[in-house]
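for the writeup, i need someone to sanity check this before i put it in the appendix. the sequnce is what the collaborator sent (i think, or maybe the updated version? ugh). structure was predicted straight from it, no edits. if anything looks off just tell me and ill rerun, i have time this weekend
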Amino acid sequence: MQKKALGRGLDALFHSNPPEEAAAPAGVIQVPTDRIRPNPYQPRGEMDTERLQELVASIRVHGILQPLVVRSDEDGYELVAGERRFRAAQAAGLSEVPVVVRDCTNREMLELALIENLQREDINPIDAAIAFRRLVDEFGLTQEDIAAQVGRSRPAVANTLRLLNLPSSIQQRVASGELSEGHARALLGLESAPEAQEALAAKILAEHLSVRDTERLVRSITERHRPSETPDKTPKRDPHITRIEEHLQRYFGTRVSIARSGEKGSIRIDFYDQEQFERILELLTAS
């Protein structure tokens, strides 16, 4: 990921470019943990419990090596970046933690928490999609804006957003890691058939299908349900023949049909009892 794509981003928050500034303690203060509130724009939902416990054990031995980033308000501080370190510090029983105070807007709170998680591959695809959607809905960003901020291509952002079109049960399985993002994208091929998506998701889990196997099944299902594209070969009805049929039906008082093929053809006159048959014969021989 190129740092220039982050705008103010993490570079502006951590001052990571000059190595002498990164090593200097200037700007770092100790803040009681009970005065820090979680980032309300944190995009990550669930956290890997095993990895969190590993970090708790490390912090108990070595402390927090990289300061958290916070913004101040009248009630204390709000976390901007470092959610996992903050939770681990609380679990480790630390009464205070090192922080760097930065001035951030609400939009930057969401962007920077998202960027931090994406850089560390510490966010599942559904949480990323929800964060992208919030940037669009709450802050008016376009897909191109988001792509520039997080260092992804616009199509990649669009594909991630599409995951929110999946049924909620499938989204939960993707968020938990039961289904991969590749499987989820394959299931989007059945976007107009949520029941088929859920049935195939269950089959993926039961039979341990690969992404390629899933894509093949999706293609098979869509081809089976695709409307026939064979053109209608029924010849168009000659309106003149139709008018003759209507005239004869009025004359005989019954159904008359004319079938024609080239110069040949036939005329069929229906009758339903002996009396009607004799009346039709009388009309035919009247002239």
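The first strand starts at residue 28 and ends at 32. Strands lie at 28-32, 36-37, 68-73, 76-81, 96-101, 256-261, 264-269.
thx in advance!!
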